Every structure is written in C-alpha cells, then in structure tokens.
Structure prediction request, 605 residues.
Amino acid sequence: MTTLPAATRPAPRIRSRGPRRRIGIGRAASYLGAWSYALMLLLPLYYLLVSSFKDNSDIFASPLALPDSLSLRKFTTSLHDARLDLAIANSVIVTVLSLAVILLLAVPAAYALARATGKVAAVIERAFSLGFLIPTFAALVPTFLLAAQLGLFHTRTFLVLFLPATSLPLAVVLLTQFMRTVPNEVEEAARMDGAGNWTVLVRIYLPMVVPGIVTVLILSFLAFWNEYLYSLVIIGPDEAQRTIQVAVPTLRSSLSTDFGVLSAGTVVTLIPVYVVYAVLQRRMEGALMGGAVKV
Amino acid sequence: MTLTTMSTPPTPTTRSGPRSGRPSRRGPRTTVMAVPALLWYAVFMIGPIGAIFVISVLRWPGMLAEIDFAGLDNYRAVLGDGLFWQAARNSAVQLVIAVPIMIVGAFMLGYFISTKPRGYRVLKVIIFTPALISASAKAMIFWGMFAPQGVINKLLGSVGLEALQHAWIADTATAFGCIIAIDIWGGIGYTATLYAARLDALPASVHEAAELDGAGHWRRMWGIAYPMVRDYVGVTVMLQFLWTLFTSAQNVLLLTQGGPGNSSTNLSFLVYQKAFVQSDLGYSQAAGVLLFAIGLVGMLTIRRAFRQPY
Prediction:
C-alpha cells in the first residue's frame, strides 16, 4: 500500500518539466473561465442585495456601490405593498402540509415496494420510476381543469394535494432503495414478537432510513417553496391565498417600478432557502446530486 | 415479458417455502400499503397527462363554453398556424444554443473542480447557488438587471459601449436572447456540480495514469475523463433538454409575455398562452401533445447518441 504511491509519485515530478508548461496554459485558462463564471453568478446576487437598501435614483446612478444605510424601509414597503406577510404564511402552510402529505404517502409505499416480492409491486415501482421523465409543466392545463372540477379552484388546498404528487416518483424510488438496505433479520425478529406491518415500519424501518427521509424532505422543500407556475394558475391573484413566489412579481409596475422594493421582496423569497442551505449544506448538496442521478 | 415471468416466480417460493402460512401472505399485504401513493399518482399525474390527449381532440373555446368533439381540427389549426411554427423555431433555437453551451461549459467547469484546484471549495458553493433560486426570483433579478436603467446598461456605458445600450427585454432583437441567457446562467453551475461529484467518484488511479502519460489539461478532460462518464453526460443532456423545452415557459411569462410581437414565444409558452390568455383549450392541448411528442423523440434520440459505443 505505502510502497505503491511512493514509487509512482516521483515519476511525474521528473517528467513534469516538459509537459507542465503546456498544462499551465490549459489550467490558467480554466482558472480564468471558472472564476469569471463565478463572478457572473455572484454579481446579480450582489446587485439584488445592495439594491434592496437603495432608492431608484441610487440604483440607476451607482448600481454596484454599497448602500448608504441599512434601513429596512424597502423591506417593510414590500411586505406592505404585496401583502408579503400573508404570502409568507401561505407559502409556509402549503410547503409544510405538502411535506407532511408526501411523507404519509411515500413512506408506506416505499416500505411496501421494498419488501414485496410479487410482480404487481415490481410494476408499481417501474411506474413510479418512469414518472421522473414526466415534465410537470406538461399537465398544467388538465391539472387546472381538475382543480375546477373538484371545486378546489383558487384554493391552497388543491396545491397541498397536488404538489406532493409531483415529488412522489422521486420520493418513492429513493426511499424504496433506502428501505432495501434494512436487513431482513431485524424485521423477522420483530415479527416473531407479533409486530404487524405498521409497527415494523414505524419502529424498525423509520429510524433506519432517516437519511433518505431527510433527502426527500430537502428536495421537496426546495420544489414546493420555489414552485411558481402551478401556484399562479391554480391559486391565482387573491392576496389571502397566494404564495410568495406569486406575490413578489406583482411588485413590478409597467410605469414606475421601485426596484429597491422589488429587490427586497425577492430577497425575502430567498431567505428561507439560504437558511436551510446554511444549516444543511452538505446534506442539501448530496440530496440534489442523488435526486438528479436517479433518472 | 418472458424475462419477468421467468425471474420473478422463484423468489416467492424460496422465501415462503420454509415458513408457515403467515409470512407467505406478507407479500401481497405490504403491496396494499402502496395503494394510496399509487392512487395519488394516478389522479394528479397520470390522469392529467392522459387528459392532454383527450382535450386535444375537443372543441373547447373557454372554461364555460360548450364542449364538443373536434376530431383532428385542433391539430389542423395548430399545424396551419404561423405562430406555432414561429414558436417551434424559437424552441429549436433555444435548445440548439442553450443545451450545448450548458453541457460543454458545465463539463469543463466540473472537471476543473474535480481536479481540486486552489479555492475549489468556495467555487463549489458559488456555482451551486443557482439551484436554490426559484424561477420567479431569478426572473425578478434579471428583470432589474436588463431594465433600461439597470446595471447591464450602466456597465456598458462605463466602458464606452453606449452604442449597445438598449431595452434588452423590450426589444425584438434581444428579448428571446435574454431568456436563453438566463437558462445558461443557472444551468452551467448546477450541471457542473453534478459532473464534479461524478468525476470525484472515479478512482484516483485514472488521474495518476493520465499524469504519467504526460497528457495535457485538455486531453485529460476530453480524452480520458469524458469517455468514462459519457453515459452520465447523456443523462444530464436529456434532463437539460427536457427542462429547457418545458420549463422555460415560466421565464417567458415573467419577463416578456412572449413579446415584443411574438418574438419570444416558444412552444411551452404557446401552450400556456393559448389556454390561459386566449382560452382556446383544444388548440393549447393539441400543441401540448406535439410538445410532448417532441420531448419524447428528443429524449430517445439523445439516449441513442450517448449510448456507450461498445
């Protein structure tokens, strides 16, 4: 083990004189490209943040300058103008309830599919995994008609029922894979003691698949909190019902937008996501990786 | 078909064989627990997808209007409509520009990060941020930047390029370009993070061998790293293709409403606009079926193209 690296390491050092100069150009270009792109990502966010403390005249005159004061006036105006207080509450309600629904649906289903051996279960699992390939946008119009049909048009209720369905394929497939890693022996021992399906699921499986559940919760939280188009079409413009993603764009006006207020409102929509990211950085990155890999 | 019937039966027999009656009933009994999720999935996902096809053959001029059977009239209307073809052209342009730039840029960036250069941790955090920002927040940020008095025009002015200053999203020549630029802006970072993670998972000996070979940065990236993750790149191309084709309706809606004129109307926005602005549900869903078909064909084509050559 130790001899191998020792034997290989010196070699590149001796040889590197020649090639390294050529590598140097490639790497230098990569450094430049990567950090220019990073700058392009940061600049809009920086602009957004400093604008949320400025008046239009300051934003237009010196867009990249730091604000003169850190007064929260633009934030209070945005809260007041677009009723962001209600919108935040609505977004929290929709997100939290949808997360509860997705767990209530996906956890038993994943347990069932992980332990079942029949052909039916295999077909069900296949059906869920194909759901990855359905772009949610495709069914916008029929879903809107369904909401009207159920008498749940212009309500948050429909969104709470609907949003979990969009994350269901991912949640079920991911959790099924986690549940499969639980050794059979543990379950059999519990069954000897007379435990039923639900007892086994809650007492034995649930504690062992916590990482999977966290992944599902993170991914679904991002999807639900950030959801825009369905919220717009189904809940509509009613201030008492609409979510924050729908409310913030209404801060624009075709004649004279207060860019400071618009920026402040936008910052408000980002805060919860970045707070969660700050707390769960590693897990969140892992979750987004896993979520994308499982196609 | 034969494969499944051959491979599944032995499992239950071996599992339930040594046990008494109870465990053998366990299989079907747990499957029942998947029923609520399945119902939900059927009602809110599969049902609406199927309904697209049904609505596309109905004459349905508005929510409260009389509905009757239209046969293929909607498809005839769609295919004979100049706007549909303009939208299709815009979608094609969007895909042809955005997806290759995103994938190639993301791969180079992802590879660079996987070589762990100085400061790569910070870089990783920065390029991950677009994945966290919602469509409406992203659109609001760029609405401010592209505004006539926004930061982009200001920066152009400060380097003496006043000639380029104009109303970016209100100009026929640049409106759709802005939509594409926003796609690329966020798409590169997220995809690069995926590639970096994937390349990290390759055994270190690969890089060492390449270094011994004296291969340069470029050759190591495209000659050695890329072939090893080619099928994964195929998966991400497929995802970006679908995202670009379908979800960009949001950016169009939030920034340009398809205008000025119809210069930034693409297929997914057309589906939205016909249904919710012009209340022609039949037309909208006929276009939706065509969009769905394009998505499917594109997906299969990409899958074929990236299949490992062996």
Summary: Chain A touches chain B through 108 residues (CB under 8 Å). Chain A has two domains: 3-51, 73-293.
